[in-house]
Automatic annotation (TrEMBL):
Major location category of this protein: membrane
This protein's name: histidine kinase
Pfam families (alphabetical): HAMP (PF00672), HATPase_c (PF02518), HisKA (PF00512)
Location in or out of the cell: Cell membrane
Amino acid sequence: MTGAVRRLRRTYRRLRLGTRLALGLGALSLAVFAVVGTALTAYMRDYLERQLGDQLKLIQTVQAKDAAAHGTVKRKPYYGWYTAVYDVSDDAVTLRRPADVPDDTRAFAGLARAMASSDTELMRTERIHGEGVYRLRGCEVEPGVVLVSAAPVEDVEETVGQLITVQVVVFALALAALVEFGRRMLRRGLKPLSDMAHTAHGIASHDLSESASRLPLRADGRDGGPEVAELRTAFNTMLEHIDDSLAVRAEAELRLRRFVADASHELRTPLMSVRGYADLFQYAAANEPAERDRHLARLRAEAARMGVLLDDLLLLARLDAAEVEAPLRTADTDLVELVLQAADAFRAGHPDHPLTVRAGAGPLRLRLDPQRIRQVLDNLLTNAAVHTPAGTPVSVEVSVAGGAALVRVADAGPGVPAEDRERVFDRFYRVDKARSRDRGGSGLGLPVARSLARAHGGDIDLSGGPGATVFTVRLPLDGGP
């Protein structure tokens, strides 16, 4: 028995949700029909029995007068009904003759004896041997004389049986129609869920390992009600999130490959130079003092260039990793003083670029890393000098706006082309591809500057058009994150 129940449970669990809901609806409807049918049948049986009792009472009213006048009942009741008059004493119960009674009169005599000692009229349902079930009613004609009438209950049972048959047929048809209609309605209502499942299968079959992988599938439709619409919206939102994540991953992979390729290329040149100059020392010409000093100077220059490049890469890696111990040593620093120091260094290193500084009258103290912010300013000023011709004016302005300190580094050079504005902060990216590395740098100055500004809770923006380039450094007045 337990094994059969387990098999039924497993079979039920394998059914589709619509079928399970339809079966549940059918079971609930069957229970409701059973309760309604039982109540209706009980009410109908009780009603018919009361009607039969009323008929007996009405007939006995006439028969009692007949028995009082003639001693027995002369008027015959309905066909199949019985009537008897009994003389009841303490010792015996005697049936008056003639009487229309069945062979088995024990139920009649028992009711007559009980009636003789009762103050109210009695009614019983008894089974008479050889006749069936009868409804018996007794009434007192006069003291010691009792009239007993009996009516068959067969008609009542037949009517109740027909009512039960009609109920079973009607309820069975209604149940079948309800289950079928409910199944169709549930299938239609659950179709959006099936569509979403189909979409999910399509996504599962989609190759997500491709770098530029996108998810063109979405759950469509308007049916299903607000709950399904909410689920559909959440499903599509999830797909959009996955799509965006895949796009970010693809972009990150592309940038990583480009970064590795550019870093390898940038390191390859000084390494080859170092190797070449080292090989020269194998020849006699390299042993001459002047020649040896020149080669050593070039070796030191290439080594220094590799050191700067590696330091920038290490700094960017530490900033990207968001290490617990960030590479910042903050202190209460005057930003105006840092700008003035950077301006003096720029004038000494680039006398061919006139520089204008507008830093306000008083100090502007912030909580920041003075060495790193000075590096940001130096990178921006050097960028202005490297990418503009000699004589191009450069300006630096310090101001406060919107709860932040602003440092604008502007030049009147050729400007940054529109197609390059989105990538000037990419690592190893150069606007002028033909510029030499000695003059154009490694392409890490602006990325390092932006990363340091963001590490302080700020940022760097690029604005301006042809004939003007403006880099704006934004630093929070509260000292950053």
